[in-house]
Amino acid sequence: MQQPVARPGWIPPALSGEGLGLSRAGRPVLRGLDLSLSPGSLLQVLGANGSGKTSLLRVLCGLAMPDEGTLHWHGRPLRTGDPAYLQALAYVGHANGIDPDLSPTENLRFAARMAGADDAGAVDRALAAQALERVAHTPVRALSQGQRRRVALARLSLARRALWLLDEPVAALDADACARFDAQLDAHLATGGMAVIATHQLLGAGGAVLRLEAPA
User: Could you tell me which residues come within 8 angstroms of residue 15 by beta carbon, excluding any fewer than 6 positions away?
Assistant: First the structure.
């Protein structure tokens, strides 16, 4: 395969997909999708329910394999369970993926240890960035849906992953919490991070937009 010629100001994609297709029970869910994501960039995947947004995220995080097309990570074909890729991504789906019996502080300390950054100061900063200080030691099961979502978003800042795959990240968030997420996302992108966000309504963060419609 011919390699692209570097040109001034051009940043080669870290993640790319060509002709991606996925079917379930013989019904097409995704068809002929192309995407490209370079360091510091954002891709918003826009579509109504049933358009394949979540299915695309599942393909990108390795939970589903495409029936058609190819994925590349830093120019290499992406294989199932690729350790370098898995170590680079953080996924937040519809479920928040946090332990309801632990407090926000305990959940974040565990995330920090998993990332090799057992730093109490970093945990406190992550809590403060999501305005969770007042419920920092309250069991997650006693929190509102919006507060639980904010715990999941706070964990992103501790994971130290280059690629964020987020499914409706601002669901259940009020205007103030959405603004805090925008600031968190801006900081991630400013340091060369990347994000793919599935949403039914465009966020104010900009970036490229991939519009999906349910295949006929």
Answer: 35, 36, 37, 60, 71, 72, 73, 163, 194
